[in-house]
Design a protein that fits this description.
Helix content: 25-40%
Structural class: alpha+beta
Strand order of the largest sheet: 1-11-7-13-5-3-2
Largest sheet: 7 strands, antiparallel
Order of helices and strands: HEHEHHEHEEEEEHHEEEEEEHH
Low-confidence stretches: 1-5, 259-265
Mean pLDDT: 92
Number of helices: 9
Strand content: 25-35%
Distance between the termini: 33 Å
Shape: globular
Number of strands: 14
C-alpha cells in the first residue's frame, strides 16, 4: 500500500544517486541491491535478544500494572507467551552477535552494501546495522533520525509511514533541535502521508531528519536498518544533513554524543 503519490522503486544507480539527497522516501528495488542472510527462526532471534543486556524493549498496552509485570518477566517467561505480548524491541550493537546467530553477517550483508555505496562515490562517518522487532498492532514512536537509513524487512510485514513533503510537518530547524518526537503522529491529511507496506525482502530508503513511524501488521516482525551517519557523495551532504552538520559545527559536543560514536561496525 502506498498513500499519496510515491516515487516508483529505484532500479538504477543513476536514480539512487539522484534521489538520495532529497525527500520523499522511496523503495529500493531488489534488482539494485538485495541483502541475503540465513537468520534463525524469528522466535530464536527473540530468545537470544531478550537475554542480552544491550537489548532495549518497550512493553505496550493500556494497563500500567500489566506492562510492569511483563517487563519484569520478559527475559524468563515462556517464549511463546512473550511473543504474544505487545512490545517493540531494538538492538543497536549487533556486533555482540557476530560470533553467534549473526556469524557471517558482516561478510554477507554489510560489506556488499558498503562496497555498493563506495562504488557510487559515497563516504560516511559510520555505517552499521540496527535490529528491530515488534508484535502485531504495535507502532514505533513518531520521530526523526540523525542519519539516512536503508530499512530491510526480514520477517513478517509492517507499514513504514512518512510524508511526501516532510518540511510541512517537521521543519528541518525543529528536527535538528530534537523537537520531533511523540508516541503518535500528529494530525495530518491522509493524502500527505506516504506509507509503504513492507514484506520479507522489501527495502525502503529513509532520509535523514524526516519524520516517520512504523506499524507492525503480522504477529512478530523482524527488520534491519542500515544506519549511515555523515553520508556524503563526492564530499557533499544531503540538504537536510547539511543543516544538521552546521548545527553540530556550532555545538560539537552534541555531534560527539549523537553521531560520531565509535564501536558500531
Amino acid at each position: 500500500m502506498t498513500t499519496g503519490t510515491a516515487p516508483a522503486a529505484v532500479t538504477t544507480t543513476e536514480e539512487f544517486t539522484q534521489l538520495w539527497r532529497t525527500p520523499p522516501n522511496f523503495r529500493v528495488a531488489p534488482s539494485l541491491f538485495q541483502p541475503e542472510f540465513a537468520f534463525p527462526t524469528t522466535l530464536d532471534v527473540l530468545d537470544r535478544l531478550r537475554h542480552d543486556e544491550g537489548t532495549k524493549v518497550t512493553l505496550l498496552g493500556q494497563d500500567p500494572a500489566v506492562r510492569t509485570a511483563r517487563a519484569l518477566a520478559f527475559r524468563r517467561a515462556p517464549l511463546d507467551e512473550v511473543a504474544s505480548w505487545p512490545f517493540r524491541l531494538v538492538h543497536f550493537d549487533l556486533k555482540r552477535f557476530y560470533a553467534d546467530f549473526l556469524t557471517g553477517f558482516q561478510r554477507q550483508v554489510m560489506i556488499p552494501w558498503r562496497l555498493f555505496l563506495t562504488g557510487l562515490g559515497f563516504t560516511w562517518h559510520r555505517c552499521y546495522p540496527v535490529l528491530f522487532m515488534s508484535t502485531a498492532g504495535c507502532s514505533s514512536t513518531y520521530h526523526v533520525d540523525n542519519s539516512h537509513g536503508l530499512v530491510w524487512q526480514v520477517r513478517g510485514t509492517k507499514t513504514f509511514h512518512s510524508f511526501r513533503d516532510p518540511e510541512r510537518h517537521a521543519p528541518v530547524d525543529a528536527a535538528v533541535l530534537g523537537q520531533i518526537s511523540s508516541e503518535t503522529s500528529p494530525p495530518h491529511d491522509e493524502v500527505d502521508r506516504l506509507s509503504f507496506s513492507m514484506g520479507p525482502g522489501d527495502l525502503v530508503w529513509s532520509h535523514v531528519l524526516t519524520p516517520h513511524w512504523v506499524t507492525a501488521e503480522s504477529p512478530l516482525t523482524l527488520s534491519i536498518n542500515f544506519s549511515h551517519g555523515g553520508l556524503a557523495m563526492g564530499g557533499q551532504y544531503s540538504d537536510r544533513d547539511r543543516t544538521l552538520r552546521e548545527h553540530w559545527d556550532a555545538h560539537p559536543e552534541q555531534a560527539w554524543l549523537s553521531d560520531l560514536r565509535n564501536g558500531r561496525y
